């Protein structure tokens, strides 16, 4: 079916599937749950001291949680991303809340921006949140501990959803109905107060850093990873002579879905709403159609 015959106003939910979910949002949820199970299988307890209780951790945490002093050991820079897929074994609510929020808001944001742009902004927000937390901990001489959790990426999605749909009604804390702009304002105030007071074991500065990246993306479209992923729509076969591009049926379907999404966005919000990566994708598609004539 040609693009002109597509119904761009229609959105089909994911539903219950026996196959691997196609949405990046659901795949991220599945990866987080799988990693949490690995943490559970490798967990052990560190005995407490006279003034501190025992602590539950895992072998996975020791290698992949973000160390506050990672910059003194640059080879641990991978922790800036890996920590975002770990969650506290002492509090199952940590992963439950993060995954519920990811599922609630991620699906619609993915539909608006596209799977690759969405994946890029989520992963970049995790790295951005980790950097912000590390810098502030170093500046204030915080404890040489570690951080784990997807909350930095979730905070970016939460604000981005509020900026796109400020008057959408949501259940704050899954209980209190309110417009999205108010829920985001309350969350931002709570994180700001927590960061100032530096109390408890919540990485409020990571939340704020993730929120800042969400705002930056909304205002400028800054998403280098998403733009890079958007350019990987085809697989190139290395060989001598003329270049040959081989497209699998799955890649063709993914390309068509991406074009459909961008055209729906143009129809709903105009060309001014497109990111540089989306404009580049449309230009490539236009050239591809011309080459086929």
From TrEMBL:
GO terms for molecular function: serine-type endopeptidase activity. It is found in: Membrane. Residues 251-287 form the DUF6576 domain. Residues 276-293 have a biased composition (Basic and acidic residues). InterPro entries: DUF6576, Peptidase_S54_rhomboid_dom, Rhomboid-like_sf, Rhomboid_protease_S54. Keywords: Hydrolase, Membrane, Transmembrane, Transmembrane helix. GO terms for cellular component: membrane. It comes from the Bacteria. Pfam families: DUF6576 (PF20216), Rhomboid (PF01694). PANTHER family: PRESENILIN-ASSOCIATED RHOMBOID-LIKE PROTEIN, MITOCHONDRIAL, RHOMBOID PROTEASE. Belongs to the peptidase S54 family. This is Rhomboid family protein.
């Amino acid at each position: 079916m040609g693009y002109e015959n597509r119904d761009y106003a229609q959105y089909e939910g994911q539903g219950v599937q026996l196959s691997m979910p196609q949405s990046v949002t659901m795949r991220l949820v599945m990866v987080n749950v799988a990693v949490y199970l690995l943490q559970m299988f490798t967990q052990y307890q560190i005995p407490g001291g006279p003034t501190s209780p025992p602590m539950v951790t895992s072998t996975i945490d020791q290698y992949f949680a973000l160390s506050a002093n990672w910059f003194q050991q640059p080879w641990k820079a991978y922790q800036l991303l890996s920590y975002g897929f770990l969650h506290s074994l002492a509090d199952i609510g940590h992963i439950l809340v993060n995954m519920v929020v990811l599922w609630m808001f991620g699906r619609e944001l993915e539909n608006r921006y596209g799977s690759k742009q969405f994946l890029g902004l989520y992963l970049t927000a995790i790295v951005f949140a980790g950097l912000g937390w590390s810098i502030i901990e170093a500046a204030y001489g915080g404890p040489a501990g570690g951080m784990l959790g997807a909350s930095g990426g979730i905070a970016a999605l939460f604000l981005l959803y509020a900026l796109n749909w400020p008057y959408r009604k949501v259940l704050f804390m899954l209980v209190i109905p309110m417009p999205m702009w108010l829920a985001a304002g309350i969350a931002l105030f709570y994180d700001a107060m927590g960061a100032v007071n530096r109390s408890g074991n919540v990485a409020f500065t990571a939340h704020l850093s993730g929120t800042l990246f969400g705002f930056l993306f909304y205002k400028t479209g800054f998403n280098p990873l998403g733009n890079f992923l958007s350019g990987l729509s085809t697989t190139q076969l290395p060989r001598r002579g003329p270049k040959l591009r081989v497209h699998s049926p799955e890649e063709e379907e993914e390309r068509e879905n991406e074009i459909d999404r961008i055209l729906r966005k143009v129809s709903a919000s105009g060309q001014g709403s497109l990111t540089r990566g989306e404009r580049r994708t449309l230009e490539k598609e236009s050239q591809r159609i011309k080459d086929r004539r």
